[in-house]
Amino acid sequence: xxxxxxxxxxxxxxxxxxxxxxxxxxxxxxxxxxxxxxxxxxxxxxxxxxxxxxxxxxxxxxxxxxxxxxxxxxxxxxxxxxxxxxxxxxxxxxxxxxxxxxxxxxxxxxxxxxxxxxxxxxxxxxxxxxxxxxxxxxxxxxxxxxxxxxxxxxxxxxxxxxxxxxxxxxxxxxxxxxxxxxxxxxxxxxxxxxxxxxxxxxxxxxxxxxxxxxxxxxxxxxxxxxxxxxxxxxxxxxxxxxxxxxxxxxxxxxxxxxxxxxxxxxxxxxxxxxxxxxxxxxxxxxxxxxxxxxxxxxxxxxxxxxxxxxxxxxxxxxxxxxxxxxxxxxxxxxxxxxxxxxxxxxxxxxxxxxxxxxxxxxxxxxxxxxxxxxxxxxxxxxxxxxxxxxxxxxxxxxxxxxxxxxxxxxxxxxxxxxxxxxxxxxxxxxxxxxxxxxxxxxxxxxxxxxxxxxxxxxxxxxxxxxxxxxxxxxxxxxxxxxxxxxxxxxxxxxxxxxxxxxxxxx
Length: 506
Hints:
Number of helices: 20
Structural class: alpha/beta
Distance between the termini: 50 Å
Strand content: 15-25%
Helix content: 25-40%
Number of strands: 19
Largest sheet: 8 strands, mixed
């Protein structure tokens, strides 16, 4: 990518300058760990909320690290001589990473924020000034083309993405480039698209400053820049999924009615995936009066794909409208204008019979099976991030279950997965528990009720005996007909395997 972006951005075609800047930043410990050590946990956490006062108080000295924090994170003018002692200031000025302010001070043209990679890498995320924290954080009245940095949605998507080595990866709506940066660690080729040319320019800066390989950057909306015959092993997207009346802000508003953008993105992804490839998205979806929201989402899944869709949160339409009105800073403006915008959101929802909006994750996997499995569920409880391995294992278990009918399942050997515990719930002193719960302490951290047979079965699964022999022993202990027990139990075994409580032992 050439230096064709806006004049206010650093040159994106000078990798040697980015490399020297990177070396200088690392030499000064301008890293995630270095910031935590300098600022302390409270001030460091405040930065993630776009609150700068604690960090300003912690950087009143003149060490190299304090200089860089003031310059790149806090957007404060710093004397040229002080900056030149830390990094190649004149070269940074020439390449537009810095700009002159007054007679003897310089200021940053972009926000540069240290970001720790999953393997301990020291990366740097570039974004527009004042926009380092992405998502609904009260960015305020900004130009519609601003490029945000890392927010909760960005890190969530990065955490759930399956990280197996692949030949090709596609990042749709790349923004500041965080997903492309992650993908570059395990994909031979990375393609990143965005409708906003400024985002592509900043993505190039993020990759260069982080020491990552350059990506194939293409301008256009969603799959538009991708030719019809191009397919990928991994597709990721944190799209502009906000359901809003209009498209005011490029980074969040998709410009399509309702949840059509997310639906279109999911439906089109199937034909862009190689066999066995994954597509993973964050999305909003409408809860429409008279419709089952789960059925609505099932209808989005393209043919030939397994899918796992998890609803993480639901907001009624008033909560949802208020969240994104605050994101745009409308609550700080004229009261009449705020009310009019609020009314517009509610009018839009009323016209579409929308009662609430869901948020969650959508994962597709291209499968050659004639009987794809689509799982749609609600799980609002805490999970263990990163979750990519858990998601990959989920789809591997689907393959296993698809390949084993009930007879084969009963001949199979299973073991309880690590860190699953059994809890018995009942009144104190009761002879028998009211119910038994299996609880995971890893991954999705699920909890599910099981009956006496299910609890007994899971409790003795150590890979030694086949499922059928375990059920025969349980039948003998309970005085039940073993044939009847073998007939009615496979469905429960399948559920425990699918949800990750049991795993095949051989």
